[in-house]
Amino acid sequence: MDFSDDLPPPCVNDHVKRRSKKRRTIRTKHLEELISTAIRAAHVARDKGFYIVSPEAIQCVEILRHMRTLPLNARLISKTDGLRVLLFLSKNGNPKIRSESNAVIDHWKSILQRKVH
């Protein structure tokens, strides 16, 4: 089959679709579920004792570490009730939960300050 010179070349879709390099923010519902799970785990860990390494305390710390790595924007932080919960967790008796929640608060404050400037 001959193609004339005035027609465009045949369409061949052999390129690989690439993901955008832009980081997407998570949804509000997902962040609220993480916050709810962390607060429940912290309450159970508190009932077991402050200086006891319980699975619930480890779960709460892991969730807080995950929250620190999430791609968030200032609107999502201010829209959820997460900062109030983190301030509550920063007064927790468990030192690991307390220090990790303070680290998340500092990270979120830096995100909020970037929006202002």
Please summarize the sheet with the most strands.
none
What's the total count of β strands? 0
**What general form does the structure show?**
elongated
What is the distance, rounded to the nearest whole angstrom, between the alpha carbons of the first and last residues? 62 Å
Estimate the strand proportion.
under 5%
Radius of gyration: 23 Å
What level of helicity do the residues show? Answer: 55-70%
Which residues sit in consecutive blocks of at least 5 with pLDDT less than 50?
Answer: none
* Count of helical regions: 5
State the order of secondary-structure elements, H for helix, E for strand. HHHHH
- Roughly what is the average pLDDT, rounded to an integer? 84
Protein name: TFIIS N-terminal domain-containing protein
Organism: Arabidopsis thaliana
InterPro entries: TFIIS/CRSP70_N_sub, TFIIS/LEDGF_dom_sf, TFIIS_N
Subcellular location: Nucleus
Q: Would you summarize the structure shown here?
A:
The chain is mostly helical and 117 residues long.
Written overview of the protein:
It comes from Arabidopsis thaliana (Mouse-ear cress). Keywords: Nucleus. This is TFIIS N-terminal domain-containing protein. Residues 1-23 are annotated as: Disordered. The chain has 117 residues and is mainly alpha-helical. The chain has a domain at 51-114. The chain contains five helices and no strands. The protein has helices at residues 28-48, 55-69, 74-79, 82-89, 95-116. Helix 1 (28-48) packs antiparallel against helix 2 (55-69) and helix 2 (55-69) runs parallel beside helix 5. The longest helix is centred in the last third of the chain and has 22 residues, at 95-116. It is elongated and about 80 Å long. The N and C termini lie far apart (62 Å).
